[in-house]
């Protein structure tokens, strides 16, 4: 679905792009939910869902870069492509620590997010997850909107990378004591 949506994006068939990208994102979201409900979650270190998300993001960012072909757009596209693997790697590492120390995630949550309102705002605007794939639908709104979306993603990625580094530092310091 991702490859087809990228093809339609490049050929300016935005209607089919929206259909294929939306269906692919919806299926990506549903397969994770079904796996959790059925208890068939992959317990290996290799997270194929995360890798497929990285590939989809890479493909759509490259496709939009080819489509808009602007110097500044390529700079921000490259930054986003560069930051995503670091984000996913740090997120996976932190998740492994959280699984080993079940109550650590709750302690961190209590430290940083004092109110449910703040927690929900952070979850909506400052986290990268499967729902983020739907944000890429807005890339067809023009180069300025697309640039703004990638700038927003780069900012959120940088903030989350810094947050994960801090949290991993907390975890390792807690383990060493």
Largest sheet: none
How many beta-strand runs? 0
> How much β-strand is present in the residues?
under 5%
Radius of gyration: 18 Å
List unreliable stretches of 5+ residues: none
Helical proportion, percent range: over 70%
Order of helices and strands: HHHHHHH
Number of helices: 7
Overall number of structural domains: 1
Mean pLDDT over the full residue set: 80
Distance between the termini: 48 Å
Coarse morphology: globular
Structural class by secondary-structure content = mainly alpha
Could you walk me through the main structural features you see in this protein, from its secondary elements to its overall organization?
- The protein is mainly alpha-helical.
- It has one domain.
- The protein is built from 7 helices and no strands.
- Helix 1 runs antiparallel to helix 2 and helix 1 runs parallel beside helix 3.
- The longest helix is centred in the C-terminal third of the chain and has 34 residues.
- It is globular, with a radius of gyration of 18 Å.
